[in-house]
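To the wet lab folks,

You asked to see what we're planning to order before we commit. Fair enough. Below is the target structure as tokens, and below that is the sequence we designed to fit it. If anything looks off to you, flag it before the synthesis order goes out.
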């Protein structure tokens, strides 16, 4: 073999190898485990058909400065919508929302200054100051909704979804992993004046993911026409949902972006199809501190 033919052979070999690698990547990118999709659909149906739920969860949210950790109790009645929320770490804030009393505002015990109950919008900056979500997004079905939206938007060749078994404290759980390898930040021009919260909803992303990537913005920001905003291409780069194998209850949800863990929710206990009494959403409840 002369030198020219030798280099031709090397070139063709490398080209074939590169093509094989690209085919492998493409096959991996198209990997969709239908069993994972079916299980998610089942869990989503159970949550969606629940008239009420009560749960206690450990929450972690990546914030500017330092991560925010909290343990909180939620009571959620869907129709009519009533929500009770209570924090246990640091400031023991309580919030009570009842759309039959006031659709626009919630009753809040700030557990500190000004040492009196407040009536505020659940979207107020004071409430969302150390949060990634409003109380209206506390139902774990909200996260499943984001995942289904991302899955529909990115298939068939930009994301993977898989189902595996995992062992936690000697117990078997089901782990669903969604990965979008095409996740990135985009510069988007604002078409019309809009609040940051509404802008985030319009683009199906978390409002705080926009705050993290735009130094001049906060949860209370109002965007003007022509503003350029860095926005993630989807809600998450990766989402891991761990389910209890038998009950199908959600054990934890972990959301990732390009920097790592963006938010994490671990459900310490979860009750579904709860029938609440009027007492559960009354400020006169002796177990509450309003």
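Sequence we intend to order:
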């Amino acid at each position: 073999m002369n030198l020219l033919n030798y280099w031709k052979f090397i070139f063709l070999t490398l080209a074939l190898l590169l093509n094989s690698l690209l085919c492998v990547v493409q096959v991996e990118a198209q990997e969709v485990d239908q069993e994972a999709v079916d299980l998610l659909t089942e869990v989503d149906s159970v949550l969606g058909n629940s008239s009420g739920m009560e749960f206690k969860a450990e929450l972690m949210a990546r914030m500017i400065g330092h991560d925010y950790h909290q343990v909180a109790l939620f009571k959620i009645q869907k129709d009519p919508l009533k929500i009770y929320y209570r924090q246990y770490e640091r400031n023991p804030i309580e919030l009570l929302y009842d759309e039959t009393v006031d659709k626009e505002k919630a009753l809040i015990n700030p557990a500190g200054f000004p040492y009196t109950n407040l009536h505020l919008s659940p979207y107020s900056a004071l409430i969302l100051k150390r949060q990634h979500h409003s109380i209206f997004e506390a139902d774990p079905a909200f996260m499943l909704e984001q995942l289904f939206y991302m899955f529909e938007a990115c298939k068939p060749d930009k994301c993977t979804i898989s189902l595996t078994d995992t062992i936690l404290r000697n117990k078997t759980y089901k782990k669903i992993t969604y990965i979008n390898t095409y996740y990135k930040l985009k510069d988007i021009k604002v078409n019309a004046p809009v609040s940051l919260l509404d802008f985030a909803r319009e683009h199906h992303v978390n409002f705080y993911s926009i705050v993290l990537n735009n130094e001049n913005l906060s949860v209370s920001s109002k965007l003007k026409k022509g503003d350029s905003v860095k926005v993630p291409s989807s809600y998450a780069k990766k989402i891991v949902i761990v389910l209890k194998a038998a009950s199908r209850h959600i054990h934890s949800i972990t959301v990732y972006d390009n920097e790592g863990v963006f938010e994490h929710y671990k459900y310490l206990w979860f009750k579904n199809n709860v029938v609440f009494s009027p007492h559960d959403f009354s400020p006169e409840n002796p177990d509450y501190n309003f």
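Structural context that might help your review: The CA atoms of residues 81 and 99 lie 6 Å apart. The domain at 34-70+133-184+233-270 is CATH 2.50.20.10 (outer membrane lipoprotein receptor (LolB), chain A).

Thanks,
Computational group
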